[in-house]
């Protein structure tokens, strides 16, 4: 209405006839819009005044680019915790993460005592073929000492264009002298899906939703079904614990893998015409085999889309603890050479029309982990509702997050072992197997 009135007021300058068509209310609205615009420009002038005062009087010469970036980021971060500005480098890093592949060496690393320590070389990668071993400590990269670099800085140096060389120096336990290894960079694909057969059960772990995730899930199911005879396969455990999310289209594709029909998720923006619905295509890749999905307080966003879709359609039983509760959609808007902004543009809703924003997915069967003595009282239970400035839920009710601890040893993993026992019939619960007839109508 404000936009319409403003346009009509502009038209009024062109002829008296246009003035007659405007009501008193429309004039008032138009003047309010003009006043609001005038106030906005005054605020922008204030920003310019402060910026110039900082440039002129700050104790040291400030970096103009950093000042502007900080101002933009402050504006975005004031909206909610997931809207932000990305510098050109941050934007490139985000693209690498979501693409799931980059030019690099193929090693998982951590920082230890100021040096980069190899957690494991990834099979069939340049580092693996060059003889890098788990436990190796990298002390130099192309002759430059690693000590003093952050882990991100060291990783950035190891990544680079395909077919280029890097010389690394490593110290290896049991070897007296440092080893110098030349590695030729190649395309490295981030494995967001790992799997194995647990005798008569297929275990699939999804760590994030990048461009490789759906393909990885297909490979996992095909491999498990080849190794476990169809008559012996009890079902699948899909582990989404501590999965922070990722790409919406991959969450939809993963959900579609287990569904034969029906809505997967819908998104609703500020304007009604921006709503979108995403539906499953015919064909369940697992042929209706039982599915248990594991979630916890670290399962967020895309993970919650998958859990919510399979739960609402009664296609899977959700086991674990309440998920994180991030029910908003972020759009990445590139700004040319100036990076990009990540802007929250919609809420998403499960097939039953439920928003999980600041509430999370409640599991069908709650199973809490046993915390070791050294962690008792030290592990926080956080969720979206605990984030400062978070987007509120659509109905005003909010729920806290839950524990996100997962034991390193599968033998101590109560949630995982409970899922195995359910599939093997060693545990009984009214929520398993779920009744498809009680789900969302398809």
Automatic annotation (TrEMBL):
Top-level division of the source organism's lineage: Bacteria
Domain PDZ intervals: 91-159
Positions of the UniProt region annotated as Disordered: 378-413
Pfam families the UniProt entry points to: CtpB_N-like (PF22694), PDZ_2 (PF13180), Peptidase_S41 (PF03572)
Keywords, in A-Z order: Hydrolase, Protease, Serine protease, Signal
Protein family per UniProt: Belongs to the peptidase S41A family.
Annotated NCBIfam families: prc (TIGR00225)
Signal peptide: 1-18
SMART domains linked to this entry: PDZ (SM00228), TSPc (SM00245)
Feature: compositional bias, Basic and acidic residues: 378-398
Database matches in SUPFAM superfamilies: ClpP/crotonase, PDZ domain-like
GO BP annotations, alphabetical order: proteolysis; signal transduction
High-level lineage: Bacteria, Pseudomonadati, Pseudomonadota, Alphaproteobacteria, Hyphomicrobiales
Family matches, as InterPro entries: ClpP/crotonase-like_dom_sf, CtpA/B_N, PDZ, PDZ_sf, Peptidase_S41A, Tail-specific_protease
One CC-aspect GO term: outer membrane-bounded periplasmic space
GO molecular function, one term: serine-type peptidase activity
This protein's name: S41A family C-terminal processing peptidase-3
